[in-house]
Design a protein that fits this description.
Radius of gyration: 24 Å
Structural class: alpha/beta
Oligomer: single chain
Helix content: 40-55%
Length: 534
């Protein structure tokens, strides 16, 4: 009933928000006589703020059209690679007419970014994607709004989330031979489960796992998010935050955790901060500070856009991750698409390198929660495990903004390059024949060994720097150790040790929940690479 009341109220308010937008333009348009009055700027600013407070925020676009690679503009084409009922796998295809740049793009690592399903859309990782595109082939999980998924597609459980991740990994492995996986916040738990299950079955696992700011062990340094989940029972969440989608949406009747409730929780954690931000926006409009006003709009266009989560997924995440701690207790069983229950055993992972990242001031996933993955992944040799703590970085700072670009990303890039397959140089040497690149990774080392001259040539150009390093393990490890910034604490990790201490600012973001999907995958087969596609 609450969802229906909210939609009714929003529909009634829509004419007033439209009026506020029109009034703002009347008082700000130089052609309008009202703009010549003494209070015109204040009136325009007030109506504009009223419009933004009342408007409906739709899903934002990634809006990534070009990136610079060594000062060369590279065009980006965004497309849906795999379309599942509850998620789309998006690819950011790169194009260039510069031969040296094209050669470099062809041999770069493939990265699957698993975005959170915790209230906001995957576009929250826009800065992550844009930065990664300079040195990687990038795919990202774009989770769908549950209220737009018809009931005929079935339910969506945490198990389905895990199965989706496995399908996406296999899809990339089928195209390129292998890939690297990056999970941000909530997905760290289901991604670890997905890779663990693949390892237990003897399947090929990703070359690396990079886990950033996630609740692997939510018992450590509990934050407001953890406290909310532990202080309330499973039944409380089911009875107080789960509602059915109204009739006007394609997913009418589906049980969901509504986006507007999540947004209310986000704002309630820091109401003073948001009130100050909106007042500053009002003053910027009066002063004519267009740059600051536009920055405010961009932030809140993203922050205010929220999606509904399927109820089963949300409730199972609360129980599995924050109440029963099934992953760290070794009691988590995941149901496969065939209906078989399989125990999640992170200790079975042996051929995937692990890199964990935490922010010193993270108030969503407390200190040590992500690093706990090293204790669980005891089958990974010590030299293949690494941990980074970004000083001065909060939760969002480890994947977006200046600290992400200057502190975290260089370490992530070096880690991925260090563990990239040695088959890459063979591809770079044959710039006009990209097809054999990763289709059969085993023969690649023989090709490099039998043709030392071509493998050495790319080293002379900056466009083949990364693949050449991959062909020579020793230089790669040397190159993968850039000078550490003063604001970074990085170290080798011993599985037995876990840091203590908490960064517990009161910002509760139910962003630490996971999801999955029950519907059968519908995969689009990608077309073969062309001479000018990377």
């Amino acid at each position: 009933m609450l969802y229906h009341l909210y939609e009714t109220q929003r529909s009634l308010m829509e004419p007033f928000t439209d009026f506020a937008q029109a009034a703002s333009k009347l008082f700000s348009n130089p052609v309008s006589p009202l703009s010549q009055t003494s209070a015109a700027q204040r009136m325009a600013a007030g109506y504009d703020l009223l419009y933004r407070l009342g408007k409906d925020y739709e899903k934002p676009a990634f809006d990534i059209h070009t990136v610079d690679v060594d000062d060369i503009g590279v065009a980006i084409h965004e497309r849906i690679e795999v379309d599942k009922p509850f998620c789309e796998l998006r690819r950011f295809k790169r194009f260039s007419d510069d031969p040296a740049t094209l050669t470099k793009l062809k041999g770069q690592p493939v990265v699957l970014i698993v975005a959170p399903l915790s209230g906001h859309y995957a576009t929250l990782l826009r800065d992550t994607v844009r930065t990664m595109l300079k040195d990687h082939k990038v795919y990202i999980t774009d989770w769908k709004n549950a209220r737009l998924v018809p009931l005929s597609e079935g339910e969506f459980h945490l198990d389905d989330y895990v199965n989706y991740v496995q399908d996406f990994i296999r899809h990339l492995q089928g195209i390129y031979g292998n890939c690297h996986v990056i999970s941000v916040c909530q997905p760290t738990v289901p991604v670890l489960a997905a890779v663990s299950l693949m390892a237990s079955r003897g399947e090929k696992t990703p070359l690396t796992m990079t886990m950033m700011g996630g609740p692997i062990d939510a018992r450590k340094s509990p934050t407001a998010v953890n406290n909310l989940a532990t202080n309330r029972s499973y039944e409380w969440f089911e009875n107080n935050v789960i509602y059915r989608v109204p009739e006007k949406f394609p997913g009418a009747g589906r049980r969901v955790y509504p986006g507007f409730l999540q947004y209310t929780g986000f704002v309630a954690m820091n109401p003073d901060r948001h009130a100050t931000s909106h007042y500053d926006y009002f003053k910027d409009l009066i002063k004519g500070d267009d740059a600051s006003a536009e920055a405010h709009r961009k932030f809140y266009d993203e922050y205010n856009a929220v999606l509904d989560m399927d109820a089963d997924y949300y409730l199972e995440t609360i129980q599995t991750v924050f109440q029963d701690y099934k992953l760290v207790n070794g009691t988590w069983d995941v149901r496969s698409p065939a209906g078989k229950l399989e125990r999640v055993r992170p200790q079975d992972i042996k051929t995937t390198a692990l890199f964990t990242v935490e922010g010193e001031l993270d108030d969503i996933s407390g200190s040590g929660q992500t690093e706990a993955a090293h204790d669980l992944c005891s089958g990974i040799v010590r030299k293949e495990q690494r941990h980074l703590e970004a000083k001065g970085a909060g939760h969002y700072g480890i994947f977006s903004g200046r600290r992400w670009r200057d502190i975290v990303y260089p370490k992530v890039r070096a880690f991925i390059l260090e563990h990239e397959l040695p088959a890459k140089p063979a591809t770079v040497a044959a710039t006009s024949t990209p097809a054999p690149r990763l289709a059969s990774p085993a023969p690649a080392p023989a090709k490099v060994a039998s043709k030392p001259a071509p493998a050495a040539k790319p080293a002379a150009t900056k466009a083949t720097k990364a693949p050449t390093a991959a062909a020579k393990p020793a230089p790669v490890r040397a190159a993968a150790k850039p000078v550490a910034a003063t604001a970074v604490a990085t170290r080798w990790v011993q599985p037995a040790a876990a840091p203590t201490g908490a960064a517990q600012a009161p910002t509760a973001d139910l962003a630490t929940t996971q999801t999955s999907a029950t519907a059968a995958p519908s995969t689009r087969s990608g077309s073969k690479s062309k001479a000018r596609k990377a």
